[in-house]
Specification:
heterotrimer; A mainly alpha; B mainly alpha; C mainly alpha; A: 2 helices; rod-shaped; B: mainly alpha; F1FO ATP Synthase; 2 helices; lipid binding (chain B); proton-transporting ATP synthase activity, rotational mechanism (chain B); membrane (chain B)
């Protein structure tokens, strides 16, 4: 019976000791310990999150760089292409202009040649007429004496002229 | 005389607790064998259940103790 | 919760060595006693305040009950003991004197005449002696004993140890903010985190933080006292957590906290349970018994477990004196060793279960939804 009967004195002292312990520990031990453990856990967690974020950021930056590089490359390709096209166009234009100019020159030359030829022909015709007049003169001088012969010569000469 | 009867009472209480804790422990073992990944949870539950069973047995022992002392 | 660590071989062997050491210490102390007096068998019975038992046969029950119950002086060895102060509340006023006054120089029990009455230490109960030299029952009933008994002294020592330990650890924490734990701090931290993550949080829920100081204090108070109770020499050896008064106070605290912090869901569950109205009165009785019986079970469980452990160890030691031979000593020591190791586990387990069930009760009282 004695074993299971709480004695008042011990109950009294236990209450005092336990409450004393509880209050002192709460103030001087548990609050700082729990807070600091909590803070540490949070700081570890935030550090982990920050590391994760940094990793993501790095990934993002790498991606961005790659994107930029790609864009730059594309830009360069575009510029090169345009330049090439331009060059080709210029060359083509030049070729075309040269062709047109050449054709023009050829046409001019032909015209010149034709006119020269015409002039030459005129000259030749004049010469021929002069020559024929001279011949005719000579023939006239020589042949006027012999009438028959004169007429024969005239007709021959005319034939010759027609051949031309 | 009362003391002996009290001792028998305590013994009977202990038999009950023994069976109870044996059951709890055995089933917990089975559970752990079946699901080793839940071992820690099963252990916690097992200890609580064992403590409750044991508590009942201890009531018996305390009552036996009381009876013993009252008789004497 | 990982109990596997408890079964870790290294630790077991360490505690075994400790237990062996303590066991030998007890044996040595008793051997010392046997040199002092003629018979070692009688020695166990011969308390310095009971010289009249000198010729009595060794009675293990008396010896064991003496060892596990509270005393007014702390027996160290042989005839040496610490005389603790006796504080008595009498209707006339407070009495304050040393318990050594109950012994004369021959270590015989004597009566002591204080300021208001004459007192006798009768089986560790302070009784008032009337003018006729007999116990005055009426006057004795009015005297309340607030003495610093062995258990109270052991309690104060435990409180002191806990305070030094944890305030020291708290200082280390403040000094090493944000760093990894070091030294004793890293011994304590797993237990604090264990109480928080495995006891408080799963059982109480998100409101656990308010109850952490109480749970931690209960846990370490019980554990340290259990461990000190296992030490057979001076600073330990008192059966503090195996005393019903101490466990009564602890469970009363739990009862108060649970019912004061209980919210409306908790009370509506008790007073308006979902049953037909004619069952309500019965339910009220059942629920109120439930309120009382939960902490009552806590009280009995801790008391009975620790007391039972002490009784078993003392019974095994008593075997030597029952058989009156040293030949039985190795067997007895081996069993004591085994029990001591088991008690180390029980010391932790009981602290854990008390805290766990406290958390469970608090959790059920502060639970929001139904």
């Amino acid at each position: 019976m004695e074993l299971v009967t709480p004695s008042i004195g011990l109950v009294f002292w236990t209450v005092i000791a336990f409450l004393f312990l509880l209050l002192l520990l709460k103030k001087f031990a548990w609050s700082p310990i729990l807070n600091l453990i909590h803070d540490r856990e949070r700081s570890i967690e935030s550090a982990l999150t920050a590391a994760e974020n940094a990793k993501d950021e790095l990934k993002r930056l790498t991606n961005e760089n790659e994107q930029l590089l790609k864009e730059a490359r594309a830009e360069r390709d575009l510029i090169l292409k345009e330049a090439r096209e331009l060059k080709e166009q210029i060359v083509n234009d030049a070729k075309k202009t040269a062709q047109v100019e050449g054709a023009k020159m050829i046409a001019k030359a032909k015209q010149e040649i034709n006119s020269q030829k015409a002039a030459a022909l005129d000259e030749v015709k004049n010469q021929v007429s002069h020559l024929s007049l001279a011949i005719a003169e000579r023939v006239l001088r020589k042949e006027f004496s012999d009438k028959a012969k004169q007429e024969e010569l005239v007709s021959d000469l005319i034939k010759e002229v027609k051949l031309n | 005389m009362v003391g002996s009867i009290a001792a028998i009472g305590a013994g009977l209480a202990v038999i009950g607790a023994g069976i109870g804790i044996g059951q709890v422990g055995g089933k917990a073992m089975e559970g752990i064998a079946r699901q080793p990944e839940a071992a820690s949870k099963i252990q916690t539950a097992m200890i609580i259940a064992a403590a409750l069973v044991e508590g009942v047995a201890l009531f018996g022992v305390v009552v036996a103790l009381l009876g013993n002392n009252v008789g004497a | 919760m990982y109990f596997n660590c408890i079964f870790n071989f290294k630790k077991i062997s360490l505690s075994a060595v400790f237990a062996l050491f303590f066991a030998f210490f007890t044996l040595q102390a008793q051997a010392q006693d046997s040199i002092d007096s003629a018979s070692s068998v009688e020695k166990m019975v011969v308390k310095e305040d009971h010289p009249e038992h000198h010729e009595e046969k060794f009675d293990p029950t008396v010896t064991i009950l003496e060892h596990i119950s509270d005393t007014h002086d702390w027996h160290l060895w042989g005839h040496t003991s610490i005389h603790l102060p006796v504080i008595l509340y009498t209707p006339a006023g407070l009495e304050f004197f040393s318990s050594g006054n109950f012994l004369n120089e021959h270590h015989e029990s004597v009566d002591y005449t204080g300021k208001y009455n004459t007192y006798r230490n009768e089986e560790e109960h302070i009784r008032v002696i009337g003018a006729d030299g007999k116990v005055d029952e009426q006057a004795s009933a009015k005297v309340i004993d607030f003495s610093i008994t062995k258990n109270v002294a052991a309690l104060f020592i435990a409180v002191f140890i806990i305070l030094v330990m944890f305030i020291g650890v708290a200082k280390t924490y403040k000094k090493r903010v944000g760093k990894a734990p070091k030294g004793f701090q890293s011994v304590v931290e797993p237990f604090i985190v264990f109480v928080r993550d495995d006891i408080a949080r799963p059982n109480i829920g998100y409101k656990y933080e308010r109850f952490m100081p109480l749970l931690l204090t209960i846990f370490f108070f019980i554990w340290i006292n259990n461990l000190l109770g296992l030490i057979p020499i001076f600073p330990g050896g008192a059966n503090v957590t195996g005393n019903i008064a101490v466990t009564f106070v602890l469970s009363a605290m739990v009862l108060i906290v649970v019912n004061v912090k209980g919210n409306k869901y908790y009370w509506s569950h008790i007073f308006k349970p979902d049953v037909p109205f004619w069952l309500l009165p019965i339910m009220w009785v059942v629920e109120i018994i439930g309120i009382i019986s939960k902490p009552f079970a806590l009280m009995i469980r801790l008391f009975a477990n620790i007391t039972a452990g002490h009784i078993i160890v003392l019974s095994l030691i008593s075997l030597i004196f029952i058989f009156k031979t040293l030949a039985i000593a190795p067997v007895s020591i081996a069993f004591v060793l085994f029990m001591d190791v088991l008690e180390l586990l029980v010391a932790f387990l009981q602290a854990f279960i008390f805290t766990m069930l406290t958390a469970l009760f608090i959790g059920s009282a502060v639970e929001e939804h139904h």
